[in-house]
Automatic annotation (TrEMBL):
This is ATP synthase subunit b. It is a single-pass membrane protein. Keywords: ATP synthesis, Cell membrane, CF(0), Hydrogen ion transport, Ion transport, Membrane, Transmembrane, Transmembrane helix, Transport. It comes from Fructobacillus parabroussonetiae. Pfam families: ATP-synt_B (PF00430). The gene is atpF.
Length: 168
């Protein structure tokens, strides 16, 4: 192993001043030529990154706001749909009840009409029967008595007879 001996000599003051001035001049040139544009580019890059981060945060907040808005609108739509279904069910029930009521009213009217028709037919049949019985009685009586009664007298006689039968 070889040992290196470092020798230190005192540098003359002129050389030292020259080295310091050259170093300072080199630093000024580097600052002007390299460090200035480099820091400028780095600052622009940092500003762009900050701007992009701010925009990303803003867009994230907008997206969250839109999600909340959509969730609210969806809930409102569900509520409206539920209300619409409830209204439709209620309307259908009311229409059904109304139709049943109308049918019941119609059936009641038809029943009353049928009862009235039956009563009228019964009365017509009784009147026809009375008339037929009266005519028959008159024919029988005139043949038996050989005497002709007027039709009004005969009807009065038959009505009295039928009224007497009705009381018994």
């Amino acid at each position: 192993m070889a040992q290196t001996i470092i020798m230190t000599k005192a540098m003359p003051l002129g050389d030292m001043v020259f080295i310091i001035v050259a170093f300072l001049l080199l630093m000024a040139i580097l600052k002007k030529v390299a460090y200035g544009p480099l820091t400028k580019v780095l600052d622009q890059r940092a500003d762009k990154i900050n701007k992009d981060l701010d925009e990303a945060l803003q867009k994230s907040q907008e997206a969250a706001s839109l999600v909340d808005q959509r969730v609210k609108e969806l809930a409102e739509s569900k509520d409206q749909a539920s209300q619409l279904i409830a209204t439709a069910k209620k309307s259908a029930k009311e229409q059904s009840e109304s139709m049943i009521q109308a049918a019941n009213t119609q059936v009641t009217g038809m029943r009353q009409s049928a009862e009235e028709d039956a009563a009228q037919m019964k009365d017509d049949a009784m009147n026809t029967a009375k008339k037929d019985v009266a005519d028959l009685s008159v024919q029988i009586a005139s043949k038996l008595i050989q005497k002709e009664l007027s039709a009004d007298d005969q009807r009065a006689l038959i009505d009295a007879y039928l009224a007497e039968l009705g009381q018994q």
